[in-house]
Design goal:
It is a single chain. The protein is α/β, with parallel strands linked by helices. Helix content is about 30%, strand content about 15%. The protein has a four-stranded parallel beta sheet with strand order 6-9-7-8, covered by helices on one side. A three-stranded parallel beta sheet has the order 1-2-3, with helices on one face.
């Protein structure tokens, strides 16, 4: 977030957008959610969204490999298996609905973000490109060293759909969620398929099934039924937390060396730099302190959002906010509400001609991080036999949240201003300020099925009794 002097209703557009109250990096679900809340909660229209790609959608736009789908239930009941085209169309419709396109600068890659202590604002350096080049899809290398391979190689996030898979000898490196989706589709076309994995994964049935016309009609014309189904899905996912967090123990497994083999195509389903948050953007905070220095020893952020010595800075899907049992969108929505509450105070101060900047107190941040790391050390994620992208080489868990989604939402249901260092001429506005209560969206069930049945039966009985008694009342 950036606190730059000026009205929150300055003209917006893509031609000369060099001065904004808020800068949002990325036009994925997180960036769009933040932008929408800026409009709805803060009536702020002077913001810019910097997107390195040429479309909205973030990861849903970048990842278009064969078999790509959501690894959880769809938020809409009509699509048991979320199709990538459906999701992109939905996100585009949301961007159009809230008029976000006039705020977005596409093909704009953020290279550096530097906090100016004197001016109390962020200065962002952007590289604008005319088009996106997928260099990964044309790289030539050799397995196992990936040095001199003369065939085709592509990363799952840069799939080349013009390449014909039919009859090809294909190797896939990786065995995570992406590989689980892409392998069945490629296997249909390849003459030979080899999967190279470091460790085996636990896999559960996908249980895809068509939604009948009758079910669709019920869910369309009986909203309470649809709400109930969604709430039950939330209950099930939250209930799955214990199995993921406590009970799952993956045993270490060593695979035999594959030896030299010839392939036409190598698919790299190897994931991303999961513990290098904000990569490759160079970030400089108060006093020019680098993010690398701040995160020496591992990334950490207060509730995964605000970082020591980075004033008026917020991040989505940051350290310790990943989930293994539920939808990350539920976390993102809570983060957006929280960050917009803080942005609102900065905007109000600016409107009164004052400066205001927030950054978490180091002691509060350390206490918070120690608390969740203590919980995570007892989890299956920290088991020495469990090798995953959730943790660093030293075993520290920097990706996963330690509790349920409801736990996280409750933590973010209010902003404790005393947890932050306030700087600038407007800092006295929030000194001794009471916590700002935000509340949270309740998606879990509020009543059991038994209670609903009893309630429905009571209503029907009362209605029946009234109808039976009505003729007597009319005669009287």
């Amino acid at each position: 977030m950036s606190s730059i002097p000026g009205s929150t209703r300055l003209p917006v557009g893509n031609k000369d957008f060099t001065n904004a109250t808020v800068v949002i990096i990325g036009a994925g679900i997180s960036g769009m959610c933040m932008a929408i809340d800026l409009i709805k909660r803060n009536k702020c229209y002077n913001f810019v969204i910097l997107e390195k790609s040429s479309s909205v959608g973030g990861t849903w736009n970048d990842n278009k490999y064969p078999g790509c789908c959501c690894d959880g239930w769809s938020p809409r009941p009509f699509y048991p298996r979320t199709n990538i085209i459906v999701d992109i169309a939905y996100l585009v419709s949301i961007a159009e609905k809230y008029g976000l396109y006039k705020h977005i600068r596409f093909n704009s890659t953020v290279e550096e973000a530097r906090w100016d202590d004197e001016e109390s604002k962020w200065k962002v350096s952007v590289q604008v490109s005319g088009h996106k080049i997928a260099t990964e899809s044309s790289a030539r290398a050799r397995y196992p060293g990936l040095k001199e391979f003369q065939g085709k190689m592509m990363h799952s996030a840069r799939s080349d759909w013009s390449y014909n898979l039919k009859g090809k000898r294909i190797a896939i490196i990786g065995n995570g969620a992406t590989a689980a989706q892409i392998i069945p589709e490629i296997a249909k076309e390849a003459s030979h398929l080899t999967v190279f994995q470091r460790t085996p994964n636990w896999v559960i049935p996908r249980r895809d099934a068509p939604v009948s016309a009758f079910q669709q009609a019920l869910l369309t014309y009986l909203p309470p039924l649809r709400w109930r189904k969604r709430a039950l899905q939330m209950d099930f996912r939250e209930g799955f937390h214990d199995a993921i967090f406590d009970e799952l123990r993956e045993r270490a497994s060593k695979s035999r060396g594959a030896g030299e083999q010839e392939y036409d195509l190598i698919v790299l389903a190897t994931g991303f730099k999961t513990v290098d948050f904000m990569y490759p953007i160079q970030v400089y905070g108060s006093g020019g302190r680098t993010l690398g220095d701040i995160w020496n020893g591992g990334a950490k952020a207060y509730y995964g959002m605000t970082v020591e010595d980075l004033p008026n800075f917020g991040m989505f899907y940051g350290p310790n906010t990943n989930l293994g049992h539920n939808s990350i969108i539920l976390m993102i929505e809570a983060q957006s509400r929280y960050l917009n509450t803080m942005v609102g105070e900065v905007i109000q101060a600016r409107q009164q001609g004052m400066t205001l900047a927030f950054k978490p107190k180091p002691s509060i941040l350390e206490e918070y991080n120690d608390r969740i790391q203590k919980l995570l050390r007892e989890s299956s994620f920290a088991d020495p036999n469990c090798n995953s992208w959730y943790k660093q080489d030293d075993g520290n868990i920097t990706n996963n949240w330690s509790g349920t989604v409801v736990d996280y939402q409750q933590n973010l249901s209010q902003v404790q201003w005393e947890d932050y260092i306030a700087e600038g001429s407007g800092k006295y506005v929030v000194v001794d300020k009471k916590p700002s209560r935000i509340g949270r969206v309740r998606e879990e069930t509020l009543f059991s099925d038994t209670s609903l049945l009893i309630g429905a039966a009571s209503i029907l009985a009362a209605a029946g009794g009234y109808l039976l008694a009505r003729p007597r009342l009319m005669r009287a």
